Amino acid sequence: MTEPAADARSVVVERVMPHPPEKIWRALTQTALLEDWLMKNDFQPTIGARFTFRTQPMPHWNGVVDCEVLAVEPHQRLSYSWNAAGGLQTTVTWTLVPVEGGTRLRMEQSGFGPQDDNNYKGAAYGWQRNVDALEKVLARLASA
Amino acid sequence: MPAAADTLFTALADPTRRRAIFERLSRAGELTVRVLTDHSGVSQPAVSKHLGVLKQAGLVHDRRDGRQTHYSARPQALKPLGDWMTLYGAFWRDRFDRLEDLLDRMDQ
């Protein structure tokens, strides 16, 4: 794995959940549970293991996320690479911190580079790929 | 999600607006409402209404020429959607909701 570039940026989502870290850890690491809320996968909690997340293919994206496990610290920290067609190369890191009444769960997806803003620039189909992807995400949001 | 991305998404979520109008304008350059209506499968007033929504989102530009109005696409307005960070921000917030639903269903 290469370290994110100094100018890389991150998406961070953090939420306190009224559940113990051990339980959240299961949801993050057991294949069937992971599929329930994230995507179909063949994840195994072993450093260096390669796995994929798969969703329905859409125009200009095969629906596959290629990953490699980078860190496994049970009930505390989990990290894997998150690479997708179109040149997206990022790292997803989960951090679990016990707090009163539950767990503070933090997801950081890092490694977005300035080049990731250029996906549609000059590309005849790029804008459509992004709109289609966003449409899928928002359709899920609407039906959630 | 930033408001700009939300507006763009709403404007493009309708398949007629996106495929029959915006994509067609992107390919063709300038077109009139009448030409756009041909082969679009919807009525001219409907096409005009769609164009109004696209214009409001900044996705089309109109140019008056006598009695005719010519429309063209402004693909640069799609910039907020081209940002993977915007996309993934929405994606992970959605997945956090689903994770919480799952946790509520799981045994301790």
Describe it for me?
The complex is a heterodimer of chains A (144) and B (108). With 144 residues, chain A is α+β, with helices and mostly antiparallel strands. Chain A has a single domain (9-113), classed as START domain (Alpha-D-Glucose-1,6-Bisphosphate, Chain A, domain 4, 2-Layer Sandwich). Chain A is 24% helix and 40% strand. Chain A has helices at residues 21-29, 31-37, 126-143, and strands at residues 9-17, 40-41, 50-54, 64-73, 77-84, 88-99, 102-112. Chain A has a seven-stranded antiparallel β-sheet with strand order 1-7-6-5-4-3-2. In chain A, a hairpin with an 8-residue loop joins β2 and β3. In chain A, α1 packs across α2 (31-37). The N and C termini of chain A lie far apart (34 Å). In chain B, a hairpin with a 2-residue loop joins β2 and β3. In chain B, strands 1-3-2 form a three-stranded antiparallel β-sheet. Chain B has one domain (3-105): Winged helix-like DNA-binding domain superfamily/Winged helix DNA-binding domain (Arc Repressor Mutant, subunit A, Orthogonal Bundle), CATH 1.10.10. The longest helix of chain B is centred in the C-terminal third of the chain and has 22 residues, at 84-105. In chain B, α2 (15-28) crosses α4 (44-56). In chain B, 31% of the residues are buried. The mean pLDDT of chain B is 83. The two termini of chain B are 33 Å apart. Chain B is an alpha+beta fold and 108 residues long. The interface between A and B is large, with 39 and 34 residues.
